[in-house]
Write a structure and sequence with these properties.
249 residues; mainly alpha; Helicase, Ruva Protein, domain 3; 3 domains; two-stranded parallel ribbon; two-stranded parallel sheet; 10 helices; 9% strand; flat
């Protein structure tokens, strides 16, 4: 490239000794960089369809062969090493982990060793229970060898202030206006019974308020809803009281 002043832009009495050059002709070449966001599953599906001659007759979603997964993993590793791709780990959240059996735990234990493994979050409300598919008893129903590889986060019961704050947030998200007395009643129910029971009473209490022609939930609406809809402990007491009249399976 030659730097200088264009001949067409030079003036008769222009001072300076800048070199005069011709304006380049032709099209201007531009370099563009495209960024695509794809998942490993997208690459697996694409490679599976391309590698099989029966892909036209197979359903859109099918089991991916291990050979295809390994080939995709190697390809992604090369792209990352060459600087052509960036690997962003995803998050896999598994609730009710104690429902998984020993085969699933074995597969997960092996999958966690892969460099492509996502961030795995397991949640369970079980204490010491039996691992499904075995007679082994373990904390949370999770094998000890897998449990030893996890970072365990303990939880504690909600305080009264936390229960009140959660109820306020849930009411705001649902577009429900609560009076101070209604908030106190729901907070008390959440503290004595359960957090879920208190938040689930928001909807029926709001319906009772609308029946009164009011847009705000009052104390009487919460009381009426709690009398009609009971929590787990009250339901258990009711079953024990009338157990003899119930049909036993």
């Amino acid at each position: 490239a030659v730097l200088g002043k264009s001949e067409s832009a030079s003036k008769k009495f222009d001072l300076g000794d800048a070199e005069k050059v011709e304006v380049p002709s032709g099209s201007v070449e531009k370099e563009r960089e495209f960024t695509y966001v794809v998942t490993l599953n997208d690459l697996d599906e694409a490679n599976a369809r391309r590698s099989s001659i029966f892909s036209l007759f197979s359903p859109p979603s099918r089991e991916i062969d291990s050979e295809v997964r390994e080939a995709v993993d190697e390809q992604v590793k090369r792209w990352v090493e060459e600087g052509r791709a960036e690997l962003i780990p995803g998050v896999l959240f598994i609730d009710e982990t104690h429902l998984m059996d020993i085969e699933l735990f074995a597969f997960m234990n092996r999958a966690m060793e892969s460099e492509m493994a996502p961030i795995i979050i397991l949640a369970s409300n079980r204490g010491v229970s039996r691992i499904r598919g075995t007679d082994i008893v373990s904390p949370h129903g999770i094998p000890l060898d897998l449990l030893d590889r996890l970072l365990i986060i303990t939880t504690e019961p909600y305080t009264r202030d936390e229960i009140r704050k959660i109820i306020e947030i849930r009411a705001q998200e649902s577009g429900i206006v609560l009076s101070e007395e209604a908030k106190e009643m729901l907070t008390k129910l959440g503290e004595e019974n359960s957090m879920r029971y208190a938040t689930q009473l928001l909807a029926p209490a709001f319906e009772y308020a609308k029946l009164r022609g009011s847009s705000q939930v009052e104390l009487e609406d919460v009381k009426r809803a709690s009398e009609v809809f009971v929590d787990v402990s009250q339901s258990s007491e009711y079953l024990k009281k009338w157990e003899e009249r119930m049909i036993k399976g």
